[in-house]
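wait is this the right file?? whatever heres the structure
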């Protein structure tokens, strides 16, 4: 089939739509890859579909090599399965819920742990049937509160999810490592600069997980990594060692209540009392599901709510209201502290134990205590509850940490028996004893990978597709469509490239050469071959790589040879 720009639906735009926020969103709209249907829902046009299919094929190839078997699970899932795991009522408002004509509850699948486990529990009953690795590539649905950034955070998106089923934890380790390596292969083949990082398991659950992060300034996540070892982690879970300064050994002093009028923030309190913020104890009240708890952290630190939820397990964690705080302490935020609090759990960060003669609120408006020490209040315990900072040392080798922004494109989880226990997915071992199946789940955001590639590979002129996932590798542009010789020459190049298995498109539009060049750069074809007067007079064409600024003038034969070599490199 002749692939010509005149015949392909590529509605490019000269200006950026107002809805677009980040580079991938702007460029995919302008270059005619996607169009918005509704908030968080997009139509994929022909060029985007070609990119998606290439990503899917790479994913499918690596999944199959690792022993995965492809299935297709239903998008509409019955509520009963989610009730068995307890997630129907706790998954939250992100779940699209619906009823059929008989009033039965269903959801649009945000993930598929329940339904795949139900399938396996009905078919597997012996250790001889394990391991099994089943995967699908399918749409997922999550009712994001604030869908944004185009394909990065949508309500409908394309995902690959694989689920592993093993006899024990050691066998699960093998499956996990297979997927870890397969993911490394996938994102390498897609031409992306990425890092696997330790991460939080979130609503999926499990005790071991890694995210695969494409490095890009627009990334929503922050990662920390060490150049001296292979440590890398999402800041949400990166462990923090307490920073203890042994400058001057202080004697413990008796606490004193002092008047602190009109000071609310840690910096205001520190300035008023002429102490450093690190001497202040920040007291935060949280509503953990329906229970109120208190978290203590050093005044110059930032709380890590993910870590708080690990210490005090809950589905929803949010700051308590002023009214709730006032009811417990008698004071407003800014004047609260842990001293004298009763019938409420208090969790303290590791560094709090080492604050000598510190400062905290007195639970009375406009009053604080000075000379506060760990013996002045009761806590449940001391835990790592803070967000890691750049002056912290690597928790693995004590080296200097670096930070980067990242876009999560994949995540691998060790689920253990979380779902098999609740859904009673069991098997008989070699001794005939019934045991729960050990599970893992492994997801890749296919549509998000497309967007992440654009975030990482673009310039002021448009997209620069990595060759493995480019919609077409080459565009052939005749400068003057009305010159029959130029058109004939361009057709010849096009035909020869097609015969060699190269994905090539001929820009036969009746547009000025400048317009064609701009669209070629905007769309991001890796190679551009331009046919002008020199092609007719001297047999010379222009050969240009999208990622480079230089243009080579070479023969048609040499241009074709370079394209083939580029495609195979």
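ok assuming it is, sequence goes like this
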């Amino acid at each position: 089939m002749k692939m010509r720009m005149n015949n392909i639906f590529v509605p490019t735009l000269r200006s950026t739509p107002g809805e677009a926020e980040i580079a991938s969103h702007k460029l995919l709209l302008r270059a005619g890859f996607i169009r918005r249907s509704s908030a968080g829902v997009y139509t994929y046009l022909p060029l985007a579909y070609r990119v998606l299919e290439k990503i899917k094929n790479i994913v499918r190839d690596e999944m199959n090599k690792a022993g995965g078997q492809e299935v297709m699970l239903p998008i509409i899932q019955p509520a009963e399965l989610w009730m068995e795991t307890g997630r129907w009522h706790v998954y939250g408002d992100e779940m699209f819920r619906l009823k059929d004509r008989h009033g039965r509850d269903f959801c649009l699948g945000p993930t598929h742990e329940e339904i795949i486990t139900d399938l396996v529990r009905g078919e597997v009953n012996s250790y001889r049937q394990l391991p099994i690795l089943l995967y699908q590539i399918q749409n997922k649905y999550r009712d994001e509160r604030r869908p944004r950034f185009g394909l990065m955070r949508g309500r409908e998106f394309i995902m690959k999810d694989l689920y592993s089923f093993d006899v024990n934890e050691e066998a699960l380790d093998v499956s996990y490592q297979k997927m870890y390596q397969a993911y490394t292969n996938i994102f390498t083949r897609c031409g992306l600069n990425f890092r696997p990082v330790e991460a939080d398991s979130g609503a999926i659950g499990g005790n071991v997980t890694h995210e695969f992060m494409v490095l890009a300034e627009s990334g929503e996540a922050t990662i920390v990594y060490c150049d001296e070892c292979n440590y890398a982690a999402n800041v949400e879970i990166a462990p923090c060692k307490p920073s203890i300064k042994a400058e001057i050994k202080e004697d413990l002093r008796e606490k004193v209540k002092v008047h602190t009028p009109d000071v609310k923030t840690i910096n205001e309190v520190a300035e008023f009392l002429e102490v450093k913020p690190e001497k202040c104890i920040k007291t935060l009240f949280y509503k953990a599901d329906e229970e109120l708890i208190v978290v203590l952290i050093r005044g110059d630190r930032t709380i890590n709510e993910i870590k708080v939820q690990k210490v005090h397990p809950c589905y929803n964690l949010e700051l308590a209201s002023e009214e709730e705080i006032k009811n417990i302490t008698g004071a407003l935020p800014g004047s609260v502290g842990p001293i004298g609090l009763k019938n409420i759990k208090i969790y303290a960060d590791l560094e709090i134990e080492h604050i000598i003669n510190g400062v905290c609120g007195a639970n009375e408006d406009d009053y604080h205590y000075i000379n506060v020490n760990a013996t002045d209040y009761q806590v449940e315990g001391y835990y790592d509850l803070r967000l890691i900072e750049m002056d912290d040392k690597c928790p693995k080798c004590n080296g200097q940490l670096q930070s980067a922004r990242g876009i999560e494109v994949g995540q691998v989880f060790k689920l253990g028996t979380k779902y098999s226990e609740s859904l009673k997915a069991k098997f008989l071992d070699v001794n005939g004893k019934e045991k729960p199946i050990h599970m893992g789940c492994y997801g890749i955001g296919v549509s998000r990978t497309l967007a992440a590639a654009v975030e990482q590979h673009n310039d002021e002129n448009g997209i620069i597709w990595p060759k493995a996932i480019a919609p077409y590798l080459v565009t052939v542009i005749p400068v003057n469509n009305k010159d029959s010789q130029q058109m004939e020459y361009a057709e010849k190049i096009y035909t020869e490239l097609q015969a060699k298995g190269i994905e090539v498109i001929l820009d036969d539009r009746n547009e000025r050469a400048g317009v064609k060049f701009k669209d070629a750069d905007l769309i991001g074809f890796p190679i551009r071959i331009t046919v002008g007067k020199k092609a007719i007079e001297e047999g010379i064409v222009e050969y240009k790589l999208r990622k480079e600024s230089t243009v080579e003038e070479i023969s048609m034969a040499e241009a074709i040879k370079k394209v083939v070599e580029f495609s195979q490199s």
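The domain at 23-238+402-455 is CATH 3.30.930.10 (BirA Bifunctional Protein; domain 2). so i think its the right one actually
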